[in-house]
Amino acid sequence: MLLVLGLALLAGGCYVAAYLAASNKVPVGTQVAGVDIGGHSPTAAATVLRDGLAGKARAPFVVVVNGRTMKVRPQQVGLDVDYTASVHAAGVGHSWSPSRLWAYFVGGGRLDPVKQLDQSRLATLIDRLDGTDGSVPTDGSVVFHRDGFVVEQPQDGLQVDAQGAGTEFWNAYLSDDPRVQLPLVATPPDIDTAAVHRFVAGFANPAMASAVTLRLGPDSVRLQPSSYAPLLGSEKAGHRLRPTVRAAALARVVKDRLGRTPAAAPRDATVALVDGRPQVVPSRPGTVFAPADIATALVAAIHASDRTASVKATRAPASFASADARALRIRDQISSATVPLSRGSQVGALLAAAARLDGTVLRPGEVLSLRDVLGGDVPGSLASTQLATATFNAAWLGGLGLGSHATLPTYTGDYPVGRDATLRNGQDLAFTDTTAYGVLVSVQTQRPSSGHDGTLTVSLWSTPRWSVTSSHSTPANVVPSGRVVRRGRVARSGPAATVST
């Protein structure tokens, strides 16, 4: 019994000793990537493994892309060794199990290290390689011009296969020869030849086929392809092309072709003379046609069998309401100036110009330019001088801020001294409403007849702020006019003549 008890105690002591020797250690004889880490604690084994793999873990890859060779560090690829996980994979732990103790002493083997890959770093590297050695695919497109369109053909790109590159780097990491071959593969564009052909057949060809008609309420505008084609384009939508229209430019083309404001458009409030007194002409809501809706209608008309489409109308208030017009406080006449019209005046041109100026309303701070008001309908020298002089004197006597102002080269005696004005030689007459109120310009004319001269009167209406008087002294140092002699032919085939003035 003593012998049996002694043997039992000896066996138990040996078992305890074996447990203590194997507790929380890597099995004896374990190798990871050729580095012996057996018999060490996890921390010590990780250190031994890190030191043992230092050379391979930091060795750069030799990368060949499109015939170009370069070196890339594992850190750039995002590859590294998880040393802690590699040690635990060898079977570290606490256990009284005989199988665990047996495995510690005789179960060590050869293991692969646990590697980890940072996908974001790999993607960054692939993008850099693509930018240097690859090419981006070119989408097909269609470019319109006045007389048609041009097809820009798609082209394949060349890019590194990201998935294949990850596998190549993974397999080459920690090897004796970390060489990686990365071939470039063709990458098709999103808009290929088939997508371009579908767009040409479905939109580009119909767009250039014939004129379209856009209906804007009771008005209609007919547009030839040459007028709207430069405003068309194509853009990518997934794997197809869709048409684009420069809406603002198209709206201007439609407005120019219509030649006027649509009949149903909102009408701003204004101030006009009614029975000789200023009265507010109330605003009126109406319908407007947004540039985006005009563009949509153009595309619809191109696809329509009758080449016609209606533009969506939107109800809108006037931009200048009746209350805004009343707030201008245009109530009384603040100035008036009259110039004579002789029978030699260009009465027809002058009346047309006066009609364009009549009824103009200035808001506080706005500038009236006579040339801007008249546009291209500036009358001849005498008529423009008469209109400019009357307008200048009305602004002068109204106390408004005068801007552009040109006088006649000589004083004719027909107008107040020093207060003549002209639009000759491209000159302008302009003044600013420097008051806190609005200003209404009214023009009245009386035609000259065989018995008497006519008159042109320009009046300004507002809320009086001041009283303006203007006078001049008696002319001094008057110089008589000289004599100018001009010689030349008075007719194409007539004799020479001498004219004295």
Oligomer: single chain
Distance between the termini: 164 Å
**How much helical structure, as a percent, in the residues?**
25-40%
Strand order of the largest sheet: 22-28-27-23
Over all CA atoms, what is the radius of gyration? 47 Å
Describe what you observe in this structure.
The protein is elongated, with a radius of gyration of 47 Å. It is built from 16 helices and 30 strands. The C terminus is likely disordered. The strands form twelve sheets. The protein has a four-stranded antiparallel β-sheet. Strands 2-1-6 form a three-stranded mixed β-sheet, with helices on one face. The protein has a three-stranded mixed β-sheet with strand order 4-3-11. Among the domains are: 110 residues, no CATH class; 135 residues, no CATH class. The longest helix is centred in the N-terminal third of the chain and has 21 residues. With 501 residues, the chain is α+β, with helices and mostly antiparallel strands.
Task: Chart the SSEs and their pairings.
Blueprint: H1 2-22, E1 31-32, E2 35-36, H2 42-52, H3 54-58, E3 61-65, E4 68-72, H4 74-77, E5 79-81, H5 83-88, H6 98-106, E6 110-111, E7 115-117, H7 119-133, E8 141-145, E9 148-152, E10 157-160, H8 162-172, E11 179-182, E12 184-187, H9 193-207, E13 212-216, E14 219-223, H10 225-228, E15 232-237, E16 240-245, H11 247-258, E17 270-274, E18 277-281, E19 286-288, H12 291-303, E20 308-310, E21 314-316, H13 322-327, E22 332-341, H14 347-357, E23 361-362, E24 367-369, H15 370-374, H16 381-397, E25 401-402, E26 430-432, E27 439-446, E28 454-462, E29 485-489, E30 496-500
